[in-house]
Amino acid sequence: MTIHAVNFHRLDLNLLVTLDVLLTEQSITRAAQRLHRSPSSTSEALGRLREFFGDELLMSVGRRMVPTPLGESLAIPVRECLIHIRTTVETRPVFDPARSRRQFRIMLSDYVSTVLMNRVLQRLQHEAPGVTIDMVPHLEEPWAALDRGEFDFLIIPEKFRQEGHPWEVLFQDEYVCVRWSENPEVGERLTVDQFLDMGHVRVSFGRRQRTPAIEEWFFARFGRERRVEVVTTTFNSVPQLLVGTHRIATVHRRLAQFYADFLPLRLLPPPMEMPPLVEIIQWHKYSQADPALQWMLGVMKACAAD
Predict the structure, then answer these.
(1) Where is the HTH lysR-type domain (predicted)?
(2) C-beta of residue 153 within 8 angstroms of C-beta of residue 175
């Protein structure tokens, strides 16, 4: 269909925001919750959008709503249009950290939060006391949230980076094995046989029980899974769950060293060579020219290098 310029007075920016959320949620109820509006006003906005586009955009199929072909074709262009408008409006030619009240939203794991963000916050306290940070955990699909511009930075292992958006390496870490200091089953070194026979604590994420990349590497290398006896949902809980048990865990060195200062733990070299972990930081392509974002990127890279 062709949209004539004379018709644009009937379509305001708020309606495009509503359309973006409706196409994402595919539910009037969930869209209304995200928009902080009532379902009736959200439904009314959908009616105005249908009238403007001359199309149903979303149709009820059983208990869910599915986009029409036109609705589906509008999803990405509308989202990118809104992100472009937002970054254009928010970006200032000069960023003064000492006077800024900017909030940065960062999606990251609890591991990265523990080993990096305290140093970042200490530096901000001195250089940018008005800047605030909103840290959010990884979603089931962080890449979709990146496409939607829902946060300023995504920190994630390099193998999971999203094509189409700029990124840089933030830091590199290595894996170590960790045990309770009083564990009688292992000394200062682990053999491969011990590693395979002992009970392990590991992490999995989300409803789909997604496992870290090291698990995929381990299975490919040995053709078998470790003897996992405890599965937890956060990296930070792994060292704590070893205390008083005969289990071991394979943990990032930075995190293991952090907890070894507080808990009775011993760090051991893995009995096999393991690939390093490379954490990258990624941001939306439309934010590339934002001086505030570039300043914050520099702060995090400097803190990660300390």
Answers:
(1) 11-68
(2) no
CB distance 45 to 12 below 8 Å: no
Residues in the chain: 306
Residue with tokens 């699909």: 141
Of 160, 150, 203, residue with least CA distance to 178: 203
**What six digits make up the tokens of 146?**
């990146």
Mean pLDDT of the chain: 86
Residue pLDDT, tens place only, 7-18: 555 667 788 888
Question: Domains plus CATH for the chain?
Answer: 5-90 (1.10.10.10), 103-172+278-305 (3.40.190.10), 175-275 (3.40.190.10)
Residues 6 or more apart in contact with residue 122 via CB below 8 angstroms: none
CA dist 233 and 73 (Å) reads 37
pLDDT of residue 6: 40
Q: Are 24 and 15 in contact (CB under 8 A)?
A: no
Residue 11 near residue 57, CB atoms below 8 Å = no
Could you tell me if 204 and 195 are in contact, meaning their C-beta atoms sit under 8 angstroms apart? no
* Tens-place pLDDT, residues 73-126: 888 888 877 777 777 676 667 789 999 999 999 999 999 999 999 999 999 999
Please say whether the beta carbons of 162 and 156 come within 8 A: no
Report whether 111 contacts 236 (CB < 8 A): yes
What is the DSSP secondary-structure string of 89-109? Answer: HH--SS--TTT---EEEEE--
CA-to-CA distance for 78 and 20, rounded, in angstroms? 6
Phi, psi of 36, deg, nearest 5: 55, 45
Per-residue model confidence as pLDDT tens digits over 258-270: 999 999 999 999 9
